[in-house]
Write a structure and sequence with these properties.
One of its GO terms (molecular function) is tRNA binding. With 260 residues, the chain is of the alpha+beta class. Helices cover 38% and strands 23% of the residues. A seven-stranded mixed sheet has the order 1-2-9-8-7-6-5, with helices on both faces.
Length: 260
């Protein structure tokens, strides 16, 4: 959240490459604990504007490297001329046969997941939803010849994002190519009281599920109180993007340093 704090202080467009470390998931062809992120922010814009800017960036990278807006990745053609656009609700209905009224109702969603064979005993919505998402949704994204932008996530999975008027979803998107998540974006939440409540609620959920608790960043909340402008930010995995443009299927093939 240091970058959002800088947005408050500078009120301008920002671009940061940074090294990240996350060992909460096992090493795999898609993940190593140490990786590089490219993070940038646009003031005065929202997540849908950022989606158009990211697509333009992908197209320009493709044109510089290969002379056109189409690449070959693992034997499949990928065009950067447009997005496949799906809301989270549309994706769950299309691929998991879970209707919107089931997706956004905790009891109905958990019952539906249980009927599909997922472990639900003692689990919350926040526990079960990622299981269904990983097993039934992710693998389909970005597989139709275009990258997929998946937007409007449940508010439970968008702690830093501005809520939509429906009260159920927030202005967050992720984009995918061939089932590989490449970036995460949201319209920045600008209400400090709501943000602090989300932080507290999120930490309670982490405590309940036995995860490491994260103390509330009150410095960030204080910065928000000074006035966070309307803005949007995205973080893109550099190595994962490199996988796509170098046509490799393992992140270790392009990392200079790997941790086993």
């Amino acid at each position: 959240m240091i970058y959002q704090t800088v947005v408050v202080r500078r009120n301008r467009r920002l671009l940061f490459p940074w090294e990240s470390f996350r060992n909460s998931e096992p090493n795999s062809p898609k993940h190593q604990p140490e990786f590089t992120m490219l993070e940038f922010y646009n003031v005065g814009q929202d997540y849908k504007y950022m989606a158009s800017e990211v697509l333009d960036m992908l197209r320009k990278v493709s044109e510089v490297l290969f002379g056109g807006s189409e690449i070959n990745y693992q034997g499949k053609k990928i065009s950067f001329e447009k997005w496949e656009e799906l809301t989270v609700a549309e994706a769950f209905e299309k691929y998991a046969l879970i209707l919107p009224d089931e997706l956004f109702d905790t009891e109905k969603f958990i019952a539906k997941a249980k009927s599909k064979g997922y472990e639900t005993h003692g689990f919350s919505f926040e526990d079960v939803w990622p299981q269904v998402y990983a097993q039934e949704i992710e693998g389909h994204l970005g597989t139709q010849g275009y990258p997929t932008v998946l937007y409007d996530y449940p508010v439970q999975f968008a702690a830093l994002s501005k809520p939509n008027s429906d009260g159920k979803t927030a202005q967050r998107f992720e984009f995918y190519i061939e089932g590989l998540e490449l970036g995460n974006c949201f319209s920045e939440l600008t209400e400090p009281k709501l943000q602090s409540k989300r932080f507290i609620d999120e930490d309670k959920e982490r405590s309940r599920s036995g995860k490491i608790e994260h103390p509330v960043d009150w410095g960030f909340i204080e910065a928000m109180e000074r006035g966070l402008p309307e803005s949007t930010g995205i973080a893109i995995g550099v190595e994962r993007l490199g996988m796509i443009f170098t046509n490799v299927c393992s992140i270790s093939d392009i990392q200079l340093i790997t941790i086993s």
